[in-house]
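Quick one, tokens below. Sequence please?
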């Protein structure tokens, strides 16, 4: 693992190693309720046989179909794989995809009592079709999305909110994973924010979550929220002055305790209400294969760390560490406390 980190950050990381390992050991004690836009990612793979006579399209002989949690369901799955007890809250359709998602959750011990069926809307599903020939690599050919732009019924919204209020006293933290698919309506958000530790990962309209503990926007989401660009040269280089101002503006907009802006290969920037800020460099910039779902991994590890008593800086660092592992894998991926400890030890070896 080859990196060049600022010496002051390196010293702080080395000094915190034992403490970080202790926090990771506490992850299995965590109890988290995740409210999210539940989705299923399907991957259909096959071999390209020929061009169709019906139209100039490929004919693919199907070989396998893989299904994994997507959207807010990936955040739920990440929390579970990190060892915590998870209560899932959201909506699925009365369809095969909804049943598949419930089965995936049940297999890892996720409590699905808070997942309701919506007979008017399908389970949000993204189906990616991949093809390959005998002498070529597998590559994506097309993606088919199934979703509804309609909001769930008021009755379902009230049922979700009632369930959340019944459960908040039994968990250590609440995560809101908002992918814009309609689950997190004002009624549901109000119920979720009744917990004292609420982590919000929302693609847009973060002002709907005023009063949450911490927000985790990426750069484009932060730009959308503040209404001005944070980069130079068409966004290729981050303007650090603009970024600091964005941190202040986001804190004012959301009334949050902290804002964590994730910056991909440039790491993360943490802004606190007390006026302090911290930059955490990326731990892995060279072996990046797929960033899909990495934000969900950050949120999961960050939340469990905070629930275990971590400072915001320690929690952000563990979120960064978890993300550095999953981006090495294709597709949405997860990690475990054991893998995180191993990755941390590799980091420390580089500094010894």
């Amino acid at each position: 693992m080859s990196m060049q980190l600022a010496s002051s950050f390196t010293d702080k990381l080395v000094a915190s190693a034992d403490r970080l390992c202790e926090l990771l050991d506490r992850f299995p004690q965590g109890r988290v309720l995740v409210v999210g836009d539940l989705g299923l990612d399907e991957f259909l793979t096959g071999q390209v046989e020929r061009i169709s006579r019906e139209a100039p399209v490929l004919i693919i002989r199907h070989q396998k179909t893989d299904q994994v949690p997507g959207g807010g369901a990936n955040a739920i799955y990440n929390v579970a794989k990190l060892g915590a007890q998870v209560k899932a809250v959201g909506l699925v359709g009365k369809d095969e995809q909804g049943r598949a998602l419930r089965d995936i959750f049940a297999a890892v011990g996720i409590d699905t009592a808070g997942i309701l069926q919506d007979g008017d809307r399908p389970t949000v599903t993204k189906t990616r079709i991949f093809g390959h020939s005998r002498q070529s690599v597998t590559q994506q050919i097309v993606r088919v999305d199934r979703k509804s732009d309609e909001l769930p019924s008021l009755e379902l919204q009230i049922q979700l909110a009632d369930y959340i209020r019944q459960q908040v006293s039994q968990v250590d933290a609440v995560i809101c994973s908002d992918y814009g698919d309609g689950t997190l309506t004002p009624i549901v958000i109000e119920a979720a924010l009744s917990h004292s530790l609420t982590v919000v990962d929302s693609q847009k309209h973060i002002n709907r979550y005023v009063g949450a503990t911490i927000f985790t926007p990426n750069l484009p989401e932060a730009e959308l929220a503040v209404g001005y660009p944070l980069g130079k040269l068409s966004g290729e280089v981050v303007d650090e002055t603009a970024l600091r101002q964005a941190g202040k503006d986001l804190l004012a907009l959301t009334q949050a305790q902290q804002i964590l802006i994730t910056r991909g290969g440039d790491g993360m920037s943490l802004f606190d209400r007390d006026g302090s800020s911290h930059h955490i460099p990326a731990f892995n910039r060279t072996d990046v294969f797929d960033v899909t779902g990495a934000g969900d991994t950050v949120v999961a590890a960050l939340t469990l760390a905070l629930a275990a008593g971590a400072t915001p800086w320690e929690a952000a660092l563990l979120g960064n560490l978890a993300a550095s592992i999953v981006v090495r894998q294709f597709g949405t991926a997860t990690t475990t406390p054991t893998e995180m400890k191993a990755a941390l030890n590799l980091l420390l070896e580089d500094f010894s």
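The first strand starts at residue 31 and ends at 36. The chain is about 35% helix and 30% strand.
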